[in-house]
Amino acid sequence: xxxxxxxxxxxxxxxxxxxxxxxxxxxxxxxxxxxxxxxxxxxxxxxxxxxxxxxxxxxxxxxxxxxxxxxxxxxxxxxxxxxxxxxxxxxxxxxxxxxxxxxxxxxxxxxxxxxxxxxxxxxxxxxxxxxxxxxxxxxxxxxxxxxxxxxxxxxxxxxxxxxxxxxxxxxxxxxxxxxxxxxxxxxxxxxxxxxxxxxxxxxxxxxxxxxxxxxx
Length: 216
Ligand SMILES: C[S@@+](CC[C@H](N)C(=O)[O-])C[C@H]1O[C@@H](n2cnc3c(N)ncnc32)[C@H](O)[C@@H]1O
Description:
The protein is of the alpha/beta class. Helices cover 36% and strands 25% of the residues. The longest helix is centred in the middle third of the chain and has 14 residues, at 127-140.
């Protein structure tokens, strides 16, 4: 692991706020957005699926409950979030592999996954690590495999409301807007990258992007 990859921004921004993360994002309506992401990902039996920045494991647990016949792996650098994810999976009685690691150095072989999902992780990655993250996702996707990424993003807007302004003031969020993510996806070698939709929410504008790994 290189030196620059060792720091990370935890799920709730500060370590001690982690226990509040799940109830907070539930209140914000993130469950509905994760559900939409999962439905659009068109996961099929036999797929191998990675959730990068899986945090407290809500999405990985949901994937395995909805699609018992897929192999699900969650990756996150934060051991405390992973411990919570493991407890959540145990309570839901589902088997999920949880790995500690960074999105820009994925510990998986080439052409390993059918789907890579990412839910509100990308704005936690330092601007200089975003390209490397997308290159790693492309490397680990099978030809024709898909990345489904949801985060703050879409056309550049002036955030409205206190919470949206507070979140958007973070420097890691600034390069998520405009065509930035699509440009990075194209540079990483994805064959077809596009914004599926964007939404204004009271915590800021969120966008959903899809990109396909080129056929071999
Ligand atoms: C806002 S949380 C989102 C968690 C989860 N995906 C969700 O939808 O609730 C962002 C997560 O990204 C993780 N993270 C931060 N930097 C990362 C990196 N370089 N690679 C992978 N995950 C990272 C954090 O530890 C945190 O759990």
